[in-house]
Amino acid sequence: MALAAARRLLLHAGSRLGRREAVDGARRFANKRVLVETEGPAGVAVMKLRNPPVNSLSLECLTEFTISLEKLENDKSIRGVILTSECPGIFSAGLDLLEMYGRNPAHYAEYWKNVQELWLRLYTSNMILVSAINGASPAGGCLLALCCDYRVMADNPKYTIGLNESLLGIVAPFWFKDMYVNTIGHREAERALQLGTLFSPAEALKVGVVDEVVPEDQVHSKARSVMTKWLAIPDHSRQLTKNMMRKATADSLIKQREADIQNFTSFISKDSIQKSLHMYLEKLKQKKG
Ligand SMILES: CC/C=C/C=C/CC(=O)SCCNC(=O)CCNC(=O)[C@H](O)C(C)(C)COP(=O)(O)OP(=O)(O)OC[C@H]1O[C@@H](n2cnc3c(N)ncnc32)[C@H](O)[C@@H]1OP(=O)(O)O
């Protein structure tokens, strides 16, 4: 209920959290955790995640992200979105571990429903989505990038990308797996999912997790030039083709959303899984000290 109210509030431009501004002819609207600017090639928005320190996809961040996408989908002048990050060195650390640890089943269910919703909206978007991956992109961060039509990654060996869930002692849901298989093929996905591989940019390019690797200072210009190329294709034929390629994968989740929420909730609530997450969070802390 509270989230639905927040959603209504945010959808109103000019509300306290969601504001629309005119800056040098460019339009922008900003929530606390997502900034959207419509500069650059006509019909293109740049969406920047800004949920420091690591752009983890908290419930609030997911909600703001989904609402921003919804706004762009409803704006007929927007044909493409470049998805990137405002947090230095991090594209997104993926799902927020603190939303999946030490909470109650109702919270897990609510959280997962919002993860599904963002994924469905991104994966089935009619707009052209290009990701400018300017930092680390594990698990849910990789998922965001995989939803895009084209992925450009910064050539920095410190940045890695991949579905690393098995390293956390958790299992990537079937729709994460399906999208991985669609992108890199069954054999590579099978190996990478079991090992929880986090690929360097060069490896990610080789295996097909990303489409292009460029020097870090060229990620945005490259994403823009890729977008220009995709904008030259008539929308109706590109959209119908995208739908043809992605519909079966999206439908398999749509048909069993409730069951998938139940699965997630009972899996994540298990003592053994909570223990694994605890250990992983401790490891992240120790890495610092
Ligand atoms: C059925 C089950 C389905 C579930 C599917 C889940 C998919 C997921 O997305 S699970 C999340 C997986 N994510 C990760 O494994 C990433 C973990 N994080 C990292 O590897 C690193 O933090 C980093 C992203 C590479 C960034 O490194 P660095 O710049 O050195 O920052 P840190 O000091 O490590 O982190 C700062 C701060 O953020 C906290 N944090 C990191 N990641 C997450 C996260 N995903 N969720 C919540 N919080 C996270 C980290 O613990 C630090 O917190 P402090 O309180 O400052 O210690």
TrEMBL record:
The UniProt entry's GO biological process terms, in alphabetical order, are: fatty acid metabolic process
From the Swiss-Prot or TrEMBL record, what is one GO molecular function term? delta(3)-delta(2)-enoyl-CoA isomerase activity
CDD domains listed in its UniProt record: crotonase-like
Highest rank taxon of the organism: Eukaryota
Concerning InterPro entries, the annotation shows:
ClpP/crotonase-like_dom_sf, Enoyl-CoA_hyd/isom_CS, Enoyl-CoA_hydra/iso
Predominant location:
mitochondrion
Report the sequence similarity comment from the record: Belongs to the enoyl-CoA hydratase/isomerase family.
> Mind telling me what this protein is named?
Enoyl-CoA delta isomerase 1, mitochondrial
